[in-house]
Amino acid sequence: MRGTSRTLFAATPGRDIANDAPGRFDVARWYYEARGHVAADASVLRQLITAVDWTNDLRPSQWAQWYSVVLGFRPDLILELGRGKGNSTALFCHAAATLGHTQIVSLCHSGDWTMQTASRVAKVVRQQWFDRLDARMTDILTADYADILGDHQRVLLLWNAHGFDIAEVVLGEILPRLFGREHFVIMHGIIDNRHGGVSRSYHGQPLWKGSEWQQRTGCSEARVNIGWMQSIQDQIVAIADFSARNNLEIGSADHEYHRLFDGDPGLAAEMRESLGEEFFSTLAHWAFFSLTGKAGPFEFPAVGGR
Amino acid sequence: MTSVSKPFASTPGRAVALDQPPVFDVARHYYEQRHRIHEDATVLRALIGAVGWPNDLTPAQWTQWYSLVLGFAPDLIIELGRGYGNSTALFAQAAWRLRRMKAAWRLGRMKIVSLCLTGEWASIAAPRIAKLVDPAWFASVDARRTDILSADYGEIIANHQRVLVLWDAHGFEIAELVLGDILPRLADRQHLLLLHDISDNRYANVQRSYGGQPLWKGSRWQQQAGAWQSRVNIGWMNSIQDQVIALADFSARNDVEIESADREYTEFFAAHSEYADEMRQLLGEEFFSSTGHWAFLSLSGKAGPFHFPAVSGWRAATSRCRVLADQWPGGAAKIVTGAVPWAYASTSAWRPAANPPAGASSWIRCRVRVKGGPVGVSLLTPDGSSFVQSQVVSSTAPVDVLLAVPDLARRGSLVIHTWDRPVAARVHIDDLSLVW
Q1: Are A4 and B206 within 8 A, CB to CB?
Q2: Domain enclosing residue B334, as ranges
Q3: Interface confidence: ipTM more than 0.85
Q4: Considering the entire predicted model, what is its pTM?
Q5: Residue B304 in domain
Q6: Which residues in chain A touch residue B310, judged by CB atoms under 8 angstroms apart?
Q7: Which of B67, B208, B234, B361 should we substitute to test contact with A (largest number of A Cβ atoms within 10 Å)?
Q8: Domain with A73 in it: what CATH number?
């Protein structure tokens, strides 16, 4: 028996999605519209990338994509969860310098930015470039987000720190504070398996058994797929759960870029001409979401330990 | 989530267009078996009472699975996870029923191989059931107390051609075993996997709210934290078990739908309200419900090729050598354990006949048969003060016990001993090997 399949939680009252405002954030359009800025800043972006020297974490085209997000969204605060060597920190600082009004609070356990990267970046930029950055070496789980968010009204959140505990802080602590303000959440490390010929095969790898297992065993090649989301990080489980409970679509940058640039090859040609293959790609490997413009009420998890 | 196209849409996959219509209609089975359920209601009720653990399986779920076995008529049921034995009992009753109906003769008698670490079936449920049924009722049941991860599924499945698997044991390791070892063996046979503890949030009464609970963070976290109210939703699947993630992954890679009993029952009986009335009248609310809280999966009738995960741990071992044990020459022995919990019956120093490469993970594989028991097969620390690893086993059929060896250079003794109950046993060690 196969009947008409209902939507998730069809038998349970939820938020009224009919009252959702049309999507306000178009990452592909931002990318296209920022092409002139990216092209103009290509030289300094390239120097920053070299100064950070950790392209494993973020490719030049991803630099350009996130740079375009900041320019397009124009946040008054960027909250960076996970910094590592500081690819995103550097590009956010440069975008903030371009915008002129954006503060950046960067939280990470890692000291690489302070001890290695910042001094190399300082040779590329002026000292004022750092003024908007508050790079803290701290535990993301213990930060005071009410204090960090303050009166900011337009917040870009980079979710680039992993595990269920951080997912709980993001979904249960930060997101309820962002609801009511314009916000946009970027999630790194999520590939859209619908695009780019992502292999279906397990490739002789065992089943993905969670991030902790992956770190313990070194089985770094095992991947998990939940719908279109492919990742090695626990938080896609939490994101899928949040998406289901709240009837909220998780956006795929891969999908958005393919939609716009495959749909209009002229725009893609223009991007390629402006930015070259170095800074233009329709592969992004990140996802996004926002509650802005969406009708509530939303369901948020409780936060353990807070 | 963006739903314009299917997962892996740009990657060649199996030819879904060649799939045959679904072979199994669980809702129709339920309806068509209504008279048999009604006829057997008294014995089912008595069995439920004897097992005495309705938390694990409601009476309506008993009849849903009972109808499934009667309708599907497998020649083998593999039960992964037994606990107190709700499913064991209903499967055995269905086998008994089919035998009397002679419906299964053309396929041979149904065999039930039940694998679980727990001992409640042998110590609690089976003695109670024995007071209710003919001794021959138990003939179909091979209830082994053993580690599901150690079992030899090639041997269990053998030449069976119509296999029902109950997947009621949890965690990623067992998911890997099911998807990477058992399912490939079943792909070219008629088969059906029942997946317990998965509710359909579209149809079952499942709350959207987190209910003031923290985020679900995996089965291990849940056990450690005792946060039993946290649940995870992966699409329509609502559960507390890790394997829903593995199932979602398998489903996406293979473009195979995980099916929902809640959906099948609700849609079927909504489309045929007169059937629902008939079921309600005949079976009552006790034995009829359109909510199942279980899912199912089958590759039967589906066009391949399929993608299966590799299996890790000892199953990935490619080499083997004999183990030379001082007390068990030739790697075989007959040992009698005493009726004293934890008493050692035989302790033996051992060494491998060959040396695995440095750094290779290795396991002792001990093939045993146990009459009585349960017994433990354990590896001691070098000073003999504690167990490095210990496995319980009670099975008259030969089963493998796998013990990870942390350091081949510092080997503790192997020991055969009584487990936690004062029951003696005869232990046959058929083979002793090291695999890596």
Answers
A1: no
A2: 313-435
A3: yes
A4: 0.95
A5: no
A6: 202, 204-206
A7: B208
A8: 3.40.50.150
